[in-house]
Amino acid sequence: MSIPGKFIVVEGLEGAGKSTVISAISDVLRVHDIPFVLTREPGGTPMAEAIRDCVKHDWQDEQVTEQTELLLMYAARSQLVENRIKPSLAIGHWVVGDRHDWSSLAYQGGGRQVNQAHLMAIRDLTLDGFTADLTIYLDIDPQVGLERARSRGELDRIEQSGIAFFERARATYLNLVDQSDSALLVDASQSIEQVRATVINHVQAFVKG
Question: What is the pTM of this model?
Answer without folding.
Answer: 0.95
